[in-house]
Design goal:
Elements (H helix, E strand, L loop, with lengths): L4 E4 L18 E4 L7 E5 L2 E6 L14 E2 L1 E3 L5 E2 L7 E7 L5 H17 L4 E6 L7 H6 L6 E4 L5 H11 L2 E2 L8 E6 L2 E6 L10 H13 L8
Parallel strand pairs: 8-9, 9-10
Antiparallel strand pairs: 1-2, 3-4, 4-11, 5-7, 6-10, 8-12, 12-13
Helix pairs in contact: 1-4
Length: 219
């Protein structure tokens, strides 16, 4: 018997700053792919995330290609994330205050602690929305990518491997991830998606993991 499938269809589950629906918004997942469903909230509203939260030491084994949107000329690929220390930031709506705090905060603190690191922001919304960052925070040097312009296979692969898919929505969740030579160090996905991740806590955990003062499975 073939496994039943469940379709993730955009609906009004997220009404604050929902991006226009991209061509990859409709994706089919079989039941096995939904095992990782986790409940978070958007203010007082429940929200379900799918995909598995990366664990320390896990290799980045998904393949995807996310089109560039800002300060990048080539797509973001898993191959490009397998060299050195890389921070990945996922953003549901870059025109909202929480996303701006995440973009600016990571730029300020990550580069102070890890000046040679690479920072990549992946947003749910279109490349044109990145003009907000250019207009008000032109000092931000991080690369920006727009998931809504990716093909359906790449978009789904990215959501699953980083655990930031939002059930019933084209958005991704707020999240921060650190990788070293293609292996995950730690991640931070807020339980309240109205708020950005705690950048300072996330980076201190990265520092602790790199210098051996934090036990890996606590990250």
């Amino acid at each position: 018997m073939k496994p039943r499938t469940r379709t993730i269809v955009p609906d009004p589950i997220v009404t604050v700053g929902e991006p226009s629906q991209p061509s990859n918004a409709l994706v089919s997942l079989d039941d096995a792919d939904l095992v990782g469903l986790r409940r978070v909230k958007l203010g007082e509203r429940p929200l379900w995330l799918y995909g598995c939260v990366p664990r320390w030491g896990e290799p980045l084994n998904a393949e995807f290609s996310i089109p560039p949107a800002r300060r990048a000329t080539e797509p973001l690929t898993s191959h490009g994330l397998r060299q050195g220390l890389v921070f990945i930031s996922t953003l549901p709506n870059i025109e909202k205050h929480a996303c701006t705090l995440q973009i600016v905060g990571l730029e300020e603190h990550a580069l102070r602690h890890f000046p040679g690191s690479r920072i990549c922001h992946v947003s749910s919304d279109a490349a044109a929305h990145w003009s907000e960052v250019d207009d008000y925070h032109s000092e931000v040097r991080a690369e920006g990518y727009s998931l809504c312009h990716a093909d359906a296979v790449s978009a789904l692969a990215f959501r699953l491997v980083f655990g930031v898919g939002v059930r019933g929505s084209a958005r991704v969740a707020h999240g921060l991830f650190a990788l070293l030579d293609g292996k995950f160090l730690t991640s931070e996905i807020p339980s309240d998606q109205y708020r950005p991740p705690a950048v300072s806590r996330f980076l201190h955990r990265v520092i602790g993991l790199l210098d051996g003062s934090v036990v890996p499975n606590e990250g």
